[in-house]
Amino acid sequence: MNHLLEFLLRQGDNALVLGQRMSEWCGHGPALEEDIALANTALDLIGQTQLWLGYAAEVEGAGRDANDLAFMRDAYDFRNLLMLEVPNADFGRTLMRQFLFDAFQVPWLQALTDSADPRVAEIAAKSVKEAMYHLDRSTSTVIALGDGTAESNGFMQRALDYLWPYAAEVFAEDATDFAMAEVGVAPLPSSLRGQWKKTLQATLQEAHLTMPEGEFAHKGGRIGVRHTEHLGHLLATMQVLPRSYPDASW
Amino acid sequence: MSKEWPLWEVFIRGTHGMSHRHVGSLHAADAEHAIRNARDVYTRRNEGVSIWVVETSQIAASSPSEKGPLYDPARDKAYRHPTFFHIPEEVGKM
């Protein structure tokens, strides 16, 4: 197995799948301002996807490009976290997921700016500024809704309870993680777990939300063993145009 | 209480601008939220380096119906423009 390729697919697929989910809000946001903010986040993530999958395609060396990887792979080829593919459900769950992801992604990308692989370090340096803004925004929304009315607090607590069994998948390490740590491309995700948990505790406390107990985490997304049934539907929507009209161009 | 967020006026200072300019308005729950929304709504195309927001209800404005007494008296006082002064050559371009 090419561990660097595997690592890059995980980076790119996380950004792609979450970006696609966020883009589903376009035109449906609860307020015009939030709608634009959600679309901006989606575009940031798709931009990051181009960089990660572009590099992945080079490393693969099979004559494919970022578009081929995004649009011509099937669900079992994807390496994204399961949490990112579950449906948006409502604004509260969408922003809670964004927060849980951003809280890991910011320190993760910060660490990757010191990567032994200069391309990884460059992509991380560009992405981390966007991720910091995403975290700023998702944190304030989680607090505003958690510390809002009884109804909004209920939405956020249910969102947290639903997402919790998915939240820690990133810490379930495998041979690729160890290989990347070995050569200094990326740290072990588990080395950031303490920091991640601290961010969660501070924000959830301020939001009057209760962190669920238990460390159980669904696995299979990032290692590509099994996805939820939702990924296939997401890809069907995302990929239908380039698959139906392979020669289509702008 | 209204469920609608209050209205805010947004002022942006651009990269080469010396002052903040009014760019539009938006709805937000509080000042911090308004700045975040302004960032997302009004600086998407790299327009700004600084954002000011002020709640619209906090702005005192002159009334359009007082236009006459407020502005008309200044119309025929062209001598208030500095165009009648000779600028010495040593000063150069101003």
Structure, described:
The complex is a heterodimer of chains A (250) and B (94). Chain A has helices at residues 3-23, 32-60, 66-71, 82-85, 91-112, 118-146, 150-167, 175-182, 193-206, 230-244. With 250 residues, chain A is an all-alpha fold. Chain B has a three-stranded antiparallel beta sheet, with helices on one face. In chain B, strand 1 and strand 2 form a beta hairpin. Chain B has 94 residues and is an alpha+beta fold. Chain B is 18% helix and 24% strand. Chain A binds chain B through residues 31-34, 36-37, 40, 133, 136-137, 140, 144, and chain B through 5, 26-29, 32-33, 36-37, 39-41, 44.
What descriptors fit this protein?
heterodimer, A: 250 residues, mainly alpha, Ferritin, 10 helices, 66% helix, B: 94 residues, alpha+beta, 3-stranded antiparallel sheet, 2 helices, 3 strands, flat
Sheet-strand content of chain A, in percent, reads under 5%
CATH superfamily of chain A: Ferritin, core subunit, four-helix bundle
Largest sheet features of chain A: none
* Spatial ordering of strands, largest sheet of chain B: 2-1-3
What pattern of helices and strands is seen along the backbone of chain A?
HHHHHHHHHH
Could you tell me which chain pair has the largest interface and how many residues each side has? A-B, 12 and 13 residues
